[in-house]
Amino acid sequence: MAITxxxxxxxxxxxxxxxxxxxxxxxxVFIAGQVSWDADGVTVGEGDLAAQVxxxxxxxxxxxAEAGAAFDDVAKLTVYVVDWTPDQMPLLMEGLGRAAAxxxxxxxxxxxLLGIAALDVPDHMVEIEAVAVID
Length: 135
What we know:
The chain has 2 helices and 6 strands; from the N terminus they run E-E-E-H-E-H-E-E. By secondary structure, the protein is α+β, with helices and mostly antiparallel strands. The model has no long low-confidence stretch (mean pLDDT 94).
């Protein structure tokens, strides 16, 4: 495995992610921001943040697999949420949990969560991009 995830002593332990990923692989994989489209380009979970987060993570998993990678290889995630407020965290975590269960993974790489004004189309509430490292 090319990625080791750690929480350094002196930083708070967070359940949703690790603060540091140490990459030792040689091949970088950059996954474009994934929105809640299904394979036919239809938005999944219109108006439902948890459902959209779930679909975004599933799409990231599909893109990783195409590159010969998996969530264990992810060095960094960036999550963009339209009109983000902290009270939405339970919905985000619900979607993440459902996707992790569906994919059989524990997605805890370092992550940044950014509140933004808008995405590509009004129906999309969240977009997730990933960087992975594989041998």
